[in-house]
UniProtKB/TrEMBL annotation, chain A:
Top-level taxon in the UniProt lineage: Eukaryota
Listed GO CC annotations: endoplasmic reticulum membrane; serine palmitoyltransferase complex
Origin species: Ciona intestinalis
Keywords associated with the record: Endoplasmic reticulum, Lipid metabolism, Membrane, Sphingolipid metabolism, Transmembrane, Transmembrane helix
Pfam families: SPT_ssu-like (PF11779)
A single BP term in Gene Ontology: ceramide biosynthetic process
Lineage: Eukaryota, Metazoa, Chordata, Tunicata, Ascidiacea
Membrane topology, record value: Multi-pass membrane protein
Subcellular location: Endoplasmic reticulum membrane
Protein's recorded name: Serine palmitoyltransferase small subunit B
Transmembrane segments: 15-35, 41-62
Length: 78, 502
């Protein structure tokens, strides 16, 4: 349950508090606020895995794709 | 605005403000967030159900007995899935036990919940002096001292507490007759009949008024008691959009022109069922519009004033006084004593012929035990206070001031608030189920007890928090509540409204 958030009804102003509040809003928006801590870990792990794999793919393959597209449409010399 | 004219009587009410109702539409991003929330919860719900079914996790929910596993499943619908996996996780914000009189401040018994909200235990502590923003205590009569409580104690000394009989047998006490006479005078109708339970008043009496061959046209957002009564009666039911006079008129025209479904015979009776104040929306019925249509198409009107009696109108006589309409225009007026009078029970009032018919044909009057004497005495005393003393006038004015101040304050903060400006019920929208739980917990930490409502009482994507304003709350308490709501709305990003209020 969401009892492990120590916020007390005010939007925090300090830097550390602000980052904690951002994580709280992320939990509220995705819905994992209502899940058990272990379910939250599972969800966060899956999300981080997915995002890191996407970023790696983009980093490794995006330049080639963009090059191929532009030369196909004739906007760049091959 | 010209004064309203009913027959030959002109009512000189001051010009009624423009009928101001507000249902701001849902912003797109919060609808997306709400559906994402439900999506993730459903995915994890399936995961947990899988773990429970294959024994990796202990099941706390009700399941079938082991020798009935091959039968048709009992618990397979979405309702039980929703309860197990979504409702139970924020269960600590619902059903909070109270251990004091439900006045302006209450004491809440503290509970400690286990993981996923399956089990709880009482810690032994009591949270004292939590400001009560959820009880239906509109005029502040939920008190354990004062003239009402004194009179109730005297009546216990005279009559005892139980009546031990139904109304038709030996349960017709003189205090019931006195109560009915006083209520009929208060409402300015010919006669009135009272029952021990408000829900039963609707569900047991509508079957006496209509039957097969009649048509009921009811508002889309009617209360469960009205829906149950309509279904039990066996009449044909048609629903019109909430407070929409054009839709109602088209349904009435179809009914009068085409008659009953296959035979096209004319309907025996057409009954329009509406409520005075709708408790989930905070809106007030458009009574002048409905009465105009009723006269034009010769239908009957059943008005359920559960939340509006005592709370609307300059003398607390309900929604008819609010609009300046004479009560005899409405055929059947029903209401409850639970909300503004601090008691329990319901009444039906109207012409003498109607009341005598119900007295002999109603299931509730025949078989249910009659109202307990201290409860009757509480209502009689509170009626006397409301109608003839300065204290009553002060309470009515205090309620109107509180409603206005709280609603305007909430709108200024930027929350979306539904409903009419004058209704004592103030629903503020929350939409997402995670924010529902977080809002209620944060308010309790700050010492305010609120009622949050989600599915199935509201549509699935429109959860809200419902504040019920009371005349017993002081302006300071309401201002503190508004400050707390402002802080928590900033924290949870709940200020969705796009309208700019000065």
């Amino acid at each position: 349950m969401g009892f492990d958030f120590k916020l007390f009804g005010k939007k925090p102003t300090s830097v550390v508090g602000y980052i904690e509040w951002l994580y709280f809003i992320y939990c509220i928006t995705t819905g994992i606020y209502m899940l058990d801590p272990w379910e939250r870990t599972v969800f966060n792990t899956c999300l981080i895995l997915l995002l890191s794999m996407s970023f790696y793919t983009a980093y490794a393959f995006l330049p080639q794709h963009i090059f191929a597209m532009l030369s196909h449409f004739g906007l760049m010399d091959t | 605005m010209k004064p309203l004219r009913n027959g030959n009587v002109i009512h000189d009410e001051p010009p009624r403000k423009r009928f101001q109702e507000d249902f701001e539409s849902t912003p797109l991003y919060i609808a997306v967030v709400t559906y994402i929330n439900y999506g993730i919860m459903i995915v994890f719900g399936f995961l947990r159900d899988f773990l429970r079914r294959h024994g990796f996790e202990k099941t706390h929910a009700s399941t079938e007995a082991s020798d009935m596993k091959d039968f048709v499943p009992l618990y397979a619908s979405f309702e039980s899935f929703y309860t197990r996996n979504i409702y139970n996780r924020i269960q600590d914000v619902f059903n909070r036990p109270i251990c004091s009189v439900p006045g302006p401040v209450i004491d809440i018994v503290e509970r400690q919940f286990s993981k996923s909200g399956w089990m709880f235990e009482y810690t032994g502590k009591v949270l004292k002096n939590v400001v009560n923003l959820g009880s239906y205590n509109y005029l502040g009569f939920a008190e354990n001292d004062g003239p009402c409580a004194e009179a109730s104690i005297e009546s216990i000394e005279k009559y005892g507490v139980g009546v031990c009989s139904s109304r038709k047998e030996m349960g017709n006490l003189d205090i019931h007759v006195k109560l009915e006479k006083k209520m009929a005078e208060y409402l300015d109708v010919e006669a009135c009949l009272t029952f021990g339970m408000g829900f039963a008043t609707n569900s047991m009496n509508i079957p006496c008024l209509v039957s097969k061959g009649c048509l009921i046209i009811s508002d889309g957002l009617n209360h469960a008691s009205l829906v149950l009564g309509c279904r039990l009666s066996g009449a044909q039911i048609r629903v019109f959009k909430h407070n929409d006079m054009k839709d109602l008129e088209s349904k009435l025209r179809d009914a009068v022109v085409y008659g009953q479904p296959r035979t096209h015979r004319p309907w025996k009776k057409i009954l329009i069922i509406v409520e005075g104040v709708y408790s989930m929306e905070g809106s007030i019925v458009n009574l002048p519009g409905i009465l105009e249509l009723k006269k034009k198409y010769k239908a009957y009107v059943f008005l359920d004033e559960a939340h509006s009696i005592g709370a609307l109108g300059s003398r607390g006589r309900g929604v008819t006084e609010y609009f300046g309409i004479h009560p005899r225009e409405v055929d059947i007026m029903m209401g409850t004593f639970t909300k503004s009078f601090g008691a329990a029970g319901g009444y039906i009032a109207g012409s003498r012929a109607l009341v005598e018919h119900l007295r002999y044909h109603s299931h509730s009057a025949c078989y249910a035990t009659s109202m307990s004497p201290p409860v009757c005495e509480q209502i009689i005393t509170s009626l006397h206070i409301i109608s003839s003393t300065d204290e009553g006038k002060r309470r009515i004015k205090q309620l109107a001031d509180n409603c206005r101040m709280f609603r305007q304050g909430l709108k200024k903060l930027g929350n979306i608030v539904y409903g009419n400006d004058d209704s004592p019920v103030v629903p503020a929208m929350i939409y997402a189920p995670t924010k529902l739980g977080a809002f209620s917990r944060e308010m309790l930490k700050r010492g305010f007890g609120v009622v949050v409502v989600g599915f199935p009482a509201t549509p699935i994507a429109e959860s809200r928090v419902r504040f019920c304003i009371s005349a017993a709350l002081t302006e300071q308490q309401l201002q503190d509540a508004l400050d707390a709501i402002s802080d928590i709305s900033d924290l949870l990003q709940m200020k969705y409204s796009k309208k700019k209020i000065a």
